[in-house]
Design a protein that fits this description.
Length: 394
């Protein structure tokens, strides 16, 4: 076998892998533009009750404002209860929180994680509210801000759903990094949430703005043991064939990272979690294939996808390499078509309100961020369960 034959085989294998990733993105970029599916009208039910935990690890800069804002809900005050899990926060912050009508829990974890905070909340809030069971649990991050009518609107759609992912969106665009982070989140909303729900598939979870039927969550929260609890919850729901509804009209404002170091650290956590989730889900994939569990198969495929920013870096480079090797022949044309398709799909997934002339200027920061993402590949540790905190500013 000649060296050129080997090069052609490697080129074809690489193109096939990249094509699978690009076609997945392109397909759901298209389905995101389909009309919304008609929702099943549920029978009228009494006003549901909500437990609202705020896991807060070193979140002194944002937690008090977030909780105060949430307490302005126009929902009946005796139908929701806020629990703040204060993990390694300052005494002054805890004093301010203690003055609010919330349950303040102060665990002392040797190794902190959001999963541990949620488990602690479920186990300990009843020490303050004796023998009380809620209908739903709404999980919010310490920096999340919602509108005063959030719970009222959520209460009207929770039935008959057991799992809902609300529309998390950026509340800040301090610089190009924060703006691109916000755009990336909206692309994910288009592809993995709206695009999936439009054809009847489950939405992806995102870590906050998540609402679950309380009995289900209480029964499963103690099975979480990683730093990416949302992916674990997703896998559990898919194995049980529980559909995740995407409430795209219910906004949860979320602070985006504003520094390249924070961006890289956050993405390393996500990439590590993605690899861990893939390894956890693969053993159950044969059963999903046998039983036709399409949602579980789809979520497993999602964990195997190459991050988009790395695709945006790799495809132009591979197109250039193909041109140097093969000139403007079919192999190069195939790479160029794939690159163009990826850019068109991503543009389609960006909401129209964000497709502005300023987007091109913000995109100048993308190559540097993509390189940082690629560098993260060298630091992924599959066995790492340590929680990596993203710092917030006031």
């Amino acid at each position: 076998m000649s060296i050129w034959t080997i090069i052609h085989i490697v080129n074809l294998l690489l193109w096939t892998i990249m094509a699978a990733n690009v076609l997945y993105v392109a397909f759901f970029a298209l389905t995101a533009h389909l009309p919304a599916r008609k929702q099943v009208k549920a029978a009228a039910s009494p006003t549901p009750t909500f437990l609202v935990p705020f896991p807060a690890y070193h979140e002194d800069a944002v937690i008090v404002r977030s909780v105060k804002t949430f307490l302005k809900q126009d929902y009946p005050r005796d139908h929701y209860h806020v629990v703040v899990i204060s993990d390694h926060m300052a005494d002054d912050t805890n004093r301010q929180l203690s003055a609010l009508p919330v349950t303040l829990l102060q665990p002392t974890f040797q190794k902190s994680s959001k999963a541990k905070a949620l488990q602690y909340a479920i186990d300990n809030y009843q020490l303050r509210i004796t023998n009380y069971e809620f209908d739903y649990v709404l999980i919010l991050d310490a920096d999340n801000i919602v509108a005063p009518d959030f719970l009222s609107r959520l209460s009207r759609i929770v039935t008959p759903h057991q799992a809902i992912q609300c529309h998390r969106t950026a509340k800040n665009a301090d610089n190009h990094i924060a703006a691109l982070d916000g755009i990336s989140e909206e692309i994910n909303n288009s592809l993995f949430r709206r695009g999936h729900n439009r054809i009847g598939l489950s939405s992806a979870l995102i870590g906050s703005g998540m609402c679950f039927h309380y009995p289900w969550f209480k029964a499963h929260v103690h099975s979480l043991d990683s730093a990416v609890e949302d992916r674990e919850l997703e896998a559990l729901l898919m194995r049980q064939r529980i559909h995740i509804h995407y409430a795209e009209d219910l906004l949860v404002m979320d602070e985006k990272v504003s520094s390249s170091d924070n961006f890289q650290r956050q993405r390393l956590r996500w990439m590590t979690g993605q690899a861990q989730a893939l390894l956890r889900m693969l053993p159950h994939l044969p059963q999903a294939l046998i039983t036709g569990n399409v949602n579980y198969i789809d979520k497993t495929l999602q964990q195997a996808l190459i991050p988009r920013s790395i695709l945006l870096l790799l495809l132009p480079l591979l197109s250039l390499l193909s041109f140097l090797l093969f000139r403007l022949t079919l192999p190069t044309l195939l790479w160029l078509v794939l690159t163009l398709l990826l850019f068109v799909a991503i543009l389609m997934a960006i909401p129209p309100r964000l497709r502005t002339a300023a987007l091109a200027r913000k995109a100048l920061a993308l190559p540097s961020l993509a390189c940082r993402m690629a560098a993260n590949l060298l630091h992924i540790h599959i066995g790492n369960k340590d929680f990596s905190h993203t710092t917030h500013s006031k």
